[in-house]
Structure formats: structure tokens, C-alpha cells
Amino acid sequence: MKNRTRQGRSGKWAVAGGAAILVLVTTTSAHAEGEGDVRVTKTVVNGGNNVIVGTSKTVKYPVAITIKDDSGVKGLSHASTFYTGSTSGGNFAEWTDTDCVKKSSTTSVCTATMTIVPAWIADSSDSDSNKAAGVWQVNATVKANDGDYWISDDIARYKVKRASKLTTNATPEPVAKGASLTVTGKLTRANWESLEYHGYTGQTVKLQFRPAGAAHYSTVKTVTTGDHGKLSTKVTATSAGSWRWYFPGTTTTARVVSAGDAVALK
Fold this sequence. Notes:
Layout (H helix, E strand, L loop, with lengths): L5 E2 L5 E2 L6 E2 L8 E5 L3 E7 L5 E3 L5 E10 L4 E11 L10 E9 L4 E10 L1 H4 L12 E11 L4 E14 L1 E8 L8 E12 L4 E4 L4 E8 L6 E7 L5 E7 L4 E7 L8 E2 L3 E3 L3
Parallel strand pairs: 6-12
Antiparallel strand pairs: 1-2, 3-12, 4-12, 5-7, 7-10, 8-11, 9-10, 11-12, 13-14, 14-15, 14-18, 16-17, 16-19, 19-20, 19-21
């Protein structure tokens, strides 16, 4: 199914899309009906990775569904993804393409391409679309060559997350050995309603340091974001190296690591 339309709260017609991933293998679904012995045996969304949605870039990701029937597989007649929570805003994923690859006389892998256009997300619901970030599920109707079909709900679960950004600035540069160094930054995340990045307050972020010449960063301390997602802390400069912030992410928001800020000793 391509170019499906839906009407949102503004009265505009929109094609939208988007969901993400996490899991995996399915032999029975939470709810299924149909006739015959055609079945979904495995579902993998986005290669096992979360789907991250920002404010402008169109996101496309695959939902690979393994289907089995004694007569061979005809394909998909329906595929959809949506938020599993209570909000009505989690239905903006669009099924835009399908490709089926025959693996044997009885088994095929049909990959549905899902698409999310951030500009259309807000019009997909009368509620705050940001509430649809989190765990999503996949539904699909599969068909066999002999006419068998099966309507399978909840064949996989995954996560759709709001994209995030993180900055770092360490001052003064250079700094005297043993002197105080101030490291600041800001954590923001995509707002699907305004299509802008807003500060993410009350989040635990790790300050990390990598000595000059070293291969890896290590965590020095943790800091909680304040108003507008701002970060600030003081450390003692003991050696030259790079400082960065690391946010591990949440159920609704993607993990992010800032670029390192190199500070030399004087």
C-alpha cells in the first residue's frame, strides 16, 4: 500500500511514517486470525536498532517479516506499526513499499519499508504527538499461494525515539595544571509538535574525560540538566585531554554523545 492519506487535527491530509526496533522472533502473536497454515515465524525491525526521529529528516526503515507456508508465500497484504500506549497519536508510520525474497519453496522474507516524515507527525493526531515516543508494535497480514491468509497482530515490538543533541564547552583554554576547569553544555531533544529542539531538563548526564594520547573516555562525574537542559560543573585540571558529555538516553529519547573539547595545559 502506497500513498495512504489520513486527516489530522489541522484538517490537512498527510502521509506519515515511523517506527523503530528492538526485537525479534515471533512464532505466535498476541492476536491472530485467518485460515490455513501460513504463519509469520520471525520479525526484525530496522535491523534490531531503535528508530530515531528528529525534526526535519525523513526516516525510512525496514520491517523484515519471515513467512512460511507449505504452498509457498504470496506476500503481504497489510503492514502497520503504531505506539502501544494509550495516546491516539501513535499511528503516523506509513507503509510505503514491500519487497519479498524467496528463501525456499515454503519460506520467504517480505520486507516492508516504513516511512516517517516529521513535518506530518503533528497532523496525525489531536493530541501531543510527542507522547507517541516509546514502545511500538508491528501488525501484518500475510498470504500464501494456496489462498491461506493470516492476520497477525503484535508480531514484534521496538522503540521509536525522539532525536537528541548535546554540546560541550570547557574553559579556560589552555588551563594551568591543578587549576579549576568549568565544563558546560546543553541537552536538547526533538519536539515533534514544534519541529524544534527544546531543552531536556532533569536528566542525568555523564561528564567524561580522555587524556591526550589515550584511546578511551572514562566517566568523571554525573550532572543533572537544569533549566533549558543546561549543564555546568567544575573539575580540577590534572592533565591535557578532551572533555565530553554523554547522555545514555531514555525510553523515549535517543542516547547522544557530544563532540570532545580538547584542553591543553599551560
